[in-house]
Amino acid sequence: MNGDHMASGHLVVDKKVLTLILIVLLLCLTTVISNGFIIVALGTEWLQRRTLSPYNKLLVSLGASRFCLQWVMIGKSTYFFLYPMAFLYDPVMQFLSLLWDFLNTATIWCCTGLSFFYCVKIANFTHPVFLWLKGKVSRWVPWILLSSVGFSGFTTILFFTGNHVLYQHYLRDKCQYWNATGDSMRSFENSYFFFLKISVFSIPFGIFLVFIVILLISLGRHMKKTLLTLSGFQDAPVQAHVRALLSIIFFALLFTSSFLVLILNNGSRFPLHEAKSWVWNIVSHLCMAVHSLFLLLNNPKLRATVERSCSPRCEVS
């Protein structure tokens, strides 16, 4: 940290970084609104009917984790803006990082569970094992959600342990903030956090890639059959099946790009005062915001609810 960013002993947030922070906050609010709508709509249906379809259970769980995750990001960004000299691993940041690690991991595993549900329900295979999975997957949704919580909790403990070790190292050596991320602490970050995040996040990402391949094979076979008969291509169920598979591919592209950005951001470990760190955050949160809107508008019930809620306002105006 050079003297250009220091003024009267206080760290000054660069204007470029401040602009990027505001963009991140705007994307977070967009994701909060879309996922909040999903939670309210599906939560109301759950309370009224006392039941919810397995797919909607996965969707509302993903929406809830993303909703809370965005508020944690808003809290971290606000805290950094108000206290730019605060150490990255001080107690407040440790608490926010604890919430972030848990909710972020839960979001990734919920996405993986949702892609598994998509893959089994939509892909068209006649293998006995696949048919057995198709009949059992709806009953497995509660266990999928419970496993997501368990994996997230275990991962959070590992991340919290590393954060606590760094903070104790910081207190023991009485480091200044702008020197706190150098030498031995930087070495610990690279050796512990990078490999931890790569190993933890590569598991769901690898599973997700398998689902992508299965869906692409299923789509190719289905398109080949429908192209053989033009009348079959005009059939409504066939068109719905193709649209669903194309939606899954779009879902896969968004999740893949978001995950790759996450890996690059975690591997780089840029200080929060550098613009590069916030650029990666913008890309990641943009993918999340777009995907949340896609899930909202791609669900017929949710889309109809959005149209009903918007129509009275249009009539009044």
From TrEMBL:
Q: Where are the transmembrane segments?
A: 20-47, 59-82, 102-120, 140-161, 192-219, 240-265, 277-297
| Top-level taxon | Eukaryota
**Short name of one Pfam family:** TAS2R
Q: Which GO terms describe its cellular component?
A: membrane
The reply on keyword Plastid is: no
Q: What is an example of a GO molecular function annotated in this UniProt entry?
A: bitter taste receptor activity
Under SUPFAM superfamilies, the record lists: Family A G protein-coupled receptor-like
Topology versus the membrane: Multi-pass membrane protein
Q: Which UniProt keywords apply?
A: G-protein coupled receptor, Glycoprotein, Membrane, Receptor, Sensory transduction, Taste, Transducer, Transmembrane, Transmembrane helix
Q: Where in the cell is it found?
A: Membrane
Classification via InterPro entries: TAS2R
Which family is annotated? Answer: Belongs to the G-protein coupled receptor T2R family.
Q: What is this protein called?
A: Taste receptor type 2
Per the UniProt entry, what species is this protein from, by scientific name? Cavia porcellus (Guinea pig)
